[in-house]
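Lecture notes, unit on binding sites. The following record was shown on slide 14. It pairs a sequence with fe (iii) ion.
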Amino acid sequence: MTLIVPGAPTRRGLLLGAGAATGVLAAPGLLRAAPSSIDPFTLGVASGDPLPDGFVLWTRLAPDPLAKDGLGGMSSAVTVDWEVARDPAMRQTAAKGRAVADAGFVHSVHVEVGGLQPDRPYWYRFTAMGAQSPVGRARTAPRPGARMDRLKVVACSCAHYELGWFSAYRHMAAEEPDLAFFLGDYIYEYSYRGDRGRENVRLHERDEDVVDLAGFRVRYAQYKTDPDLQALHAVAPSVVTWDDHEVQNDYSGAWSQDVSISQTQMLARRAAGYRAFYEHMPLRRHHRPNGPDMRIYRRMGFGDLADITVLDGRQYRSIQACASPTSRRGHVAKDAECANRTDPTRTMLGAAQEDWLYKGFKRGGARWTVIAQDLLVAPALEHAPGGGFGYFTDSWDGYAANRDRMLAALAGSKARNPVFFGGDVHCFFNTDLKADFADPAARTIATEFVTTAVTQNPPAGSPYAGVMARSPHIKFFDETTRGYIGFEIGRDRMETRFQAISDRADPKATVRTLQRFVVEDGKPGAVAV
Ligand code: FE
Ligand code: CA
């Protein structure tokens, strides 16, 4: 095991290698050394949220990315030139402009490029402080309703920096997808130390929990120095949402898992986490946080082929079900002890997001309705401590009435071929989302795929062992592998692969397909092939 200590040189040099493998960053001269000795582009580049005429471009200037004050070694405002080209060698300019990076948003830039042609690839780069960034690739969406034949996506979640190398990200980049979904737990606010740190391959810069803005900024910066993550962001537009660890384990709305933390304190922590999230992600300016509030649920269209709905499963939640006076942590609750879990007045998404979501379903649209969110949707019975079975209160099982409302809204709507993608559980799941989960013969309303973790541990004590037999709607389950999902949407079918990396502790880990699935147009539920 190689232990990389904070402050040691990163593997940034590998970005070139990763780019060469994907053919994206490899054009000669594009990664030439900056004329100045200062490199402000230590965190890479990213694009996101494509529209028919453009996308968002992101970078953050940070010549000293791990500076303890979180400012990346920057102070005054700096102009950043950006350019978008039709070719990877950046010769045919399609758009260019200038942005200002200042300390307010920690020298990040979020450029909303418009005026481009629909449904084609573009390449982009930034120039600032006498240095040039690596070249990234983005693409525009087709016009609304325009024919699209194929959309290739990769999806991931749960990347703890200390527990493994980001080989999953490297293999996702090598697939050269059209989009990359980041479904939450992009960072972890806590570190593994002592006995729990036995499997660490590298260390967070700080070992205490991140609770403030400087801490979150350093945490994002450290993750983003990873060359495999940089390669993934550079190869395709990202579509991001968050889960709990972008703020704190198992938080719900304004409630910390820890009963000693007041709602006021929790909202201050949430404001710091959300602000740092915005600063480090390719999101449009209208997503800018306002204190502890930041709207990230949104929708994007890909011609007549796919509508992508991105949900926020954290910000608007009711308090955790059956929270005790000593803990609001997610836990396995037996039905006899937790009627609260199915209380219809409780919500996962919040009234405004639910209303927005169901109106979207009602309108319908493209052939495939893709819902990108953070969690396992299907009920998943698991072993309860001390014997018996229960349901985990932090996932959709803790907000069962909201799940019922969502699936009922979908069932009565024009939304075609609904497919949910989620993460959080650190296992692969394929499920049928049913009109009635108690009845195996009930109608399947939607298909669900859940990705395992990029590096995070499987759930302790194999709580889902035996879950398959008791939950016939769960058609595939694996807790033994780390990896990601790759899927390709076609006109008549969606093909999905559960991709497993060989070893999170191996920086050169290989990848294999653990299982393939097909979903046919008009037939909800995946078939393993
Ligand atoms: Fe996680
Ligand atoms: Ca989580």
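Take-home: Residues 185, 243-245, 424 surround calcium ion (ligand 2) (CB under 6 Å).
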